[in-house]
Write a structure and sequence with these properties.
about 500 residues, alpha/beta, 6-stranded mixed sheet, globular, binds nicotinamide-adenine-dinucleotide
């Protein structure tokens, strides 16, 4: 199919893309790296190359960790008063705010996001930066301990150079969630973005330089997971590590950090449930869950992908969902009226389609079969929303698909619903839908996961900790005061009286 002309881009975005092949940023300087290799990042909506970037090697990652370590020791970042660091971080947030339409467009193009969603991610990053910058000013880092016969206190210090590896589904938002507490606490950072979506991280590093952050406080190393990612995770100079991505790679990162005795946060995948009781407003609940599963084409770690529905409303609920999923307009992410854009690449499209095949082969009913979607004039990676139904031992109900595919199963009692929700290796986020708030609280607390939501799915008010258990993550999660404390190491000081 012929590809039609790309939409008119903002002149600043054109200028940024024209600097391709894009360099990474280490110690405040553009770095093309030592491999001499470049890779393309694609526009998932057209399937065509969007920009080229330099691929960094393990040796380049080593330089980045050294630059971050130097900045930690000598730039004054780690020792400046939190309110002074706060000024820097608010200045960076101001710069991001000023460039929000530009970063939003870059992110929309690179990750296949609708413009409004991409700009929402940018705003989320800004708000997270400000949240942690302010928190760090007000939190007491020194606590006096009442101990008989001694003067004693604890003090918290930043760790040093911290490593961050991010996935492609929420590149800019997750950078905000990851690095904001680390920076506010006085650490320096090395960021390895996903090879599918490196652009917004590179743009951020350039902005940080313009905003006057000391060189080396934010370093970005674009490259492959197998080389740059592995080099960062296993670097002995990293003092703390954070990884967001799949459980399989999370294990590798955890192993590497274990060998170096480096504390690590792993934010991994999910297979969340939505438990829908028979006292809900069925059309409204169906709409909210369809919105959630089609948001960013279902490439959302905490999505409700298993819809557990009381059997007395299952028929009505299913019909309401099918009607709404069929009405979702699949289209180019920057085209007016698009309700759902592409998935990120051809591999992801194949993964989604393969799970539909495997699921139906194992006996799931294809209530809405999904499949590849054609978008006139575009060769991008489009799939239709799909709805399967059946028992929870099906592969499509057990494994993370990461696409707009939901799986319906029915239950008859509250206990059965809770047991079904907990019948998974994952433990990221679930929701319960009912007008009985007593039952809502009971079920919410019984579901084994980091997060339970009531009558909503995908809720992220800042200050509420977000993280996973079991195969969905270890290490404390993100987005709350605990996260800030994670980025300080604690020391006790004692003197006999
Ligand atoms: P992925 O694990 O394939 O890749 C994530 C990152 O790891 C990328 O930057 C990649 O280059 C890097 N990487 C790959 N191999 C590596 C290695 N050997 N050593 C070090 N780094 C390596 O994940 P993905 O496909 O980019 O993202 C999808 C996954 O991320 C899903 O499982 C999703 O649920 C999860 N996710 C979780 C959260 C959360 O907050 N829990 C948020 C977003 C995404």
């Amino acid at each position: 199919m012929a590809t039609i002309a790309a939409p008119r881009l903002l002149p600043e975005v054109e200028r940024f893309l024209a600097t391709s092949p894009l360099a990474s940023v280490i110690g405040g300087k553009d770095v093309v790296g030592s491999t001499g290799r470049t890779m393309n990042t694609l526009d998932p909506g057209t399937g065509a190359p969007l920009a080229e970037f330099h691929v960094l090697s393990a040796a380049d990652v080593d330089h980045a960790v050294q630059a971050a370590t130097r900045a930690f020791k000598a730039s004054g970042w780690a020792t400046m008063a939190p309110n002074e660091r706060g000024v820097h971080l608010h200045r960076l947030a101001d710069a991001i705010q000023k460039h929000k339409p530009i970063i939003g467009e870059i992110e929309a193009l690179d990750a296949g996001k609708l413009r409004a969603h991409a700009e929402g991610d940018v705003q989320n990053c800004i708000d997270t930066l400000r949240y942690f910058a302010d928190m760090a000013m007000h939190v007491q880092r020194r606590s006096v301990l009442a101990v008989a016969g001694h003067e004693a206190w604890t003090i918290r210090h930043p760790w040093g150079a911290c490593g961050f590896i991010f996935p492609w589904n929420f590149p800019f938002l997750l950078i905000g969630w990851g690095i904001s507490p680390a920076l506010a606490a006085g650490n320096t950072v090395v960021i390895k973005p996903a090879e599918d979506t490196p652009l917004s991280a590179i743009y951020l590093a350039r902005l940080a330089r313009e905003a006057g952050l000391p060189d080396g406080v934010i370093n970005v190393v674009a490259g492959t997971g197998a080389e740059a990612g592995a080099a960062l995770a296993g670097h002995p100079g990293i003092r703390r590590m954070s990884f967001t991505g799949s459980p399989d790679v999370g294990r590798l990162v955890g192993e590497a950090c274990g060998r170096n005795l480096v504390p690590v946060k792993l934010e991994l995948g999910g297979k969340g449930a939505a438990v829908v009781f028979d006292d809900v407003d069925v059309p409204q609940t169906a709409q909210k869950l369809v919105n959630a599963i089609t948001f960013h084409s279902g490439q959302v770690c905490c999505d409700a992908t298993r819809w557990l529905v009381h059997r007395s409303i299952a028929r009505q609920f299913t019909d309401e969902c099918v009607r709404r999923m069929q009405a979702v307009k699949v289209g180019y992410q920057l085209a007016d009226g698009t309700g759902m854009g592409p998935v990120v690449n051809a591999k992801q499209r194949e993964r989604v389609l393969a799970y539909l095949d495997k699921g139906t082969q194992q006996g799931a009913e294809a209530v809405l079969p999904g499949g590849p979607a054609q978008v006139p004039g575009q060769d991008g990676f489009y799939v239709k929303p799909a709805l399967l139904a059946g028992s929870l031992d099906n592969v499509a109900a057990r494994e993370e698909i990461f696409g707009p595919v939901a799986y319906i199963s029915t239950f008859a009692s509250e206990d059965e619903a809770v047991a079904m929700a907990n019948d998974t290796d994952y433990g990221l986020a679930n929701s319960v839908w009912t007008s009985d708030l007593g039952r809502a609280a009971r079920v919410a607390e019984s579901m084994v996961a980091g997060n339970s939501w009531i009558n909503a799915h995908n809720l992220f008010p800042r200050g509420v900790p977000y993280g996973g258990v079991n195969k969905s993550g270890v290490g404390g999660g993100v987005n709350s005061i605990e996260t800030l404390f994670d980025y300080w190491r604690s020391q006790s000081v004692v003197r006999p009286l």
